[in-house]
Amino acid sequence: MDKVALAERYAQVKASIPNGVELIAVSKTRTVEEIQALYDLGQRAFGENYPQELRDKQPLLPDDIQWHFIGHLQGNKVKYVAPFVHLVHGVDRERLLNELNKRAANAERTIDVLLQVHIAQEDTKHGFLPEELRALVSAGKLTDRWPELRFRGLMGMATNTDDLSQVRREFDGLAALRVELLESGAVSTDRFTELSMGMSADLTEALAAGSTMVRIGTAIFGERS
Ligand SMILES: *Cc1c(COP(=O)(O)O)cnc(C)c1O
Asked: CA separation (Å) from 180 to 11, 75, 107, 185?
């Protein structure tokens, strides 16, 4: 691992992110040594996609790391991350909310979650459709139905395309949906503050649309093998 190059890329990424926007370093497939090196440069928020990988790495790294789970989470894997996860970004179905709620209770802690919205023109991406989310919130206050969870906002992944105006429209749509849900009264105004959108390739568009959390892997660690 080239620590000098890592430090340079990290500094560059940090410089491109305004104050108040949280940088989550996406460390899926990276070694414990690479993560430790970035930690030593001051990074504390890391994002992982695979529950077992996260479960195995977590005990080998410092306790004050905030672990974000950003991938597609299967119900039977929730138990691996429930005891320590800082924020689950990709909550995309009611059954997962049920499972998270149950595992949070078992672990005697509250779990912070983001609702993932399907904003891309791609079938491979996950998430609630906006209509499904409207139906979910109109069925009652989310915290009444899932009392062990704290609903912190929305997450979305844009279409993987060179048409950056499309990407921008998709992010704008996600931002507008957050406002709409706030206005519906089903989510708490002071808590439903986050918009997790933006990766290495679409960071600029996400920031322009009002992202509060960006999930950056390649631009910090280099290409994944
Ligand atoms: C891998 C991944 C990222 C980071 O992607 P990069 O292109 O490496 O910045 C962000 N979000 C999710 C959900 C991912 O799976």
From this structure: 36, 28, 33, 9
What atom in ligand 1 is closest to the CA of residue 199? 9
Per-residue b/e over 120-159, b at no fewer than 16 CB within 10 Å?
A: beeeebbbbebebbbebbeeeebeeebebbbbbbbbbbbe
User: What pLDDT score does 204 carry?
Assistant: 97
Helix (H, G, I), strand (E, B) or coil at 47: strand
Inter-axis angle of helices 130-138 and 164-184, nearest 10: 10
Q: What is the mean pLDDT of the chain?
A: 95
Question: Domain locations in the chain?
Answer: 3-221
pLDDT of residue 124 exceeding 80: no
Residues with CB under 6 A from ligand 1: 26, 28, 49, 70-71, 157, 199-201, 215-219
**Judging by beta carbons within 10 Å of its beta carbon (0-12, 13-18, 19+), is residue 92 exposed, middle or buried?**
buried
Architecture of the domain defined by 3-221 = Alpha-Beta Barrel (3.20)
